[in-house]
TrEMBL record:
Annotated ranges, domain Porphobilinogen deaminase N-terminal: 13-221
Cofactor requirements of the protein: dipyrromethane
Species annotation: Yoonia sediminilitoris
Enzyme Commission designation: 2.5.1.61
GO molecular function (one): hydroxymethylbilane synthase activity
Descriptive protein name: Porphobilinogen deaminase
PANTHER family in the record: PORPHOBILINOGEN DEAMINASE (PTHR11557:SF0)
GO cellular component: cytoplasm
Other facts noted in the record for this chain: The porphobilinogen subunits are added to the dipyrromethane group.
Gene: hemC
NCBIfam families: hemC
Cofactor note: Binds 1 dipyrromethane group covalently.
Length: 314
């Protein structure tokens, strides 16, 4: 190690949003860095940064100019040097970072599956006709409309805690959350049932913590290299290439999942019309190094099948 290690007097500043899930992810990052370099907790400082998106809770995000709503203030702090790294849910991040920043470090991925969450029913298949399901995800909404047209879907925003409170208040019979979020928050007492990817293909990068840094910060680069998980990196490279090729954001109904099977990389992709009336899927396996190429090719194949206007009127 050629770099100056942080000390309690000059700590390494870890930037994060203030939601309980974001904090859990920042703590996990700190724990891994402490272990990798045998540093005390005091050599790190968790810096909570307020972002615009956390202050607007009354509207679906797609009705706001969503670009950077959850990241702008954090990336500014990173560029200014107030923080050394920023910890994110990769799922919520655009595929390209602003000039001067990179996100190349990914921690070992959690469970990628969506979870069915309900205080009244055990699983998705137990929901009666007309049951009310709350979600703000265009992907989950379209997937449900395609497979369970008899459910009613209502808009459901807010963090994990808020959504659970809404369920308890009876605003909906069930909701969907990422299993990873529930696990990271230690919410094992919440009644949830993970849904296999073949029934509900997760969001691209679901369950993966990504860490952003300044491109020219060699100390941060060396420190992050020690906690990077290569298999997760390969999977995300393929998934994010698919997302980039589809020109999608987290507000487009797209599912995607890369897995490593017998040393090969399998990528599944899915795009949906917003109302669930059409679902296009693809599934291919290539050598690990070809993941990004496969992602780009799969995007092109899906878009060719979809034709113009597929994502309109979502
Ligand atoms: N869009 C919000 C968001 N961003 C990341 C997670 C969960 C953790 C993850 O997927 O890494 C969630 C909540 C959810 O979808 O239930």
């Amino acid at each position: 190690m050629t770099v100056n290690m942080p000390t309690p007097a000059a700590p390494f500043n870890i930037g994060t949003r203030g939601s309980p899930l974001a904090l859990a992810q920042a703590y996990e990052t700190r724990t891994r860095l402490m272990a990798a370099f045998d540093l005390p907790q005091e050599a790190f400082k968790i810096c909570v940064i307020k972002v615009t998106g956390d202050q607007i809770l009354d509207k679906p995000l797609r009705e706001i100019d969503g670009k950077g709503l959850f990241t702008r203030e954090i990336e500014e702090a990173l560029l200014e040097g107030t923080i050394d790294i920023a910890v994110h849910s990769t799922k919520d991040m655009p595929v390209a970072q602003p000039a001067g920043l990179v996100m190349e470090t990914f921690l070992p991925r959690e469970d990628v599956r969506d979870a069915f969450v309900s205080l009244k029913y055990k699983s998705l298949h137990d929901l009666p006709d007309g049951a009310v399901v709350g979600t703000s995800s265009t992907r989950r909404r379209a997937q449900l409309a395609a497979k369970f047209p008899n459910l009613q879907v209502v808009e459901f925003r807010g963090n994990v805690q808020t959504r659970l409170k809404k369920l308890a208040e009876g605003v909906a019979d069930a909701t969907f959350l990422a299993t990873a979020g529930l696990r990271r928050l230690g919410m094992e007492d919440v009644p949830y049932m993970p849904i296999d990817a073949e029934h509900m293909l997760p969001a691209i990068a679901q369950g993966a913590i990504g860490i952003e840094r300044r491109v020219d910060d060699e100390r941060a680069a060396e420190m992050l290299a020690a906690i990077h998980d290569a298999p997760t990196g390969h999977r995300l490279a393929a998934e994010r290439a698919l997302l980039a090729g589809l020109d999608g954001s987290c507000e487009t109904p797209i599912g995607g999942l890369a897995e490593i099977e017998g040393g090969m990389l399998r990528l599944r992709g899915e795009i949906l019309r917003g109302d669930g009336s059409e679902v296009l899927t693809d599934d291919a396996t290539v050598p690990l190094a070809d993941g990004p190429k496969l992602g780009a090719e799969m995007a092109a194949r899906l878009l060719a099948q979809a034709g113009p206007g597929f994502f309109d009127h979502s």
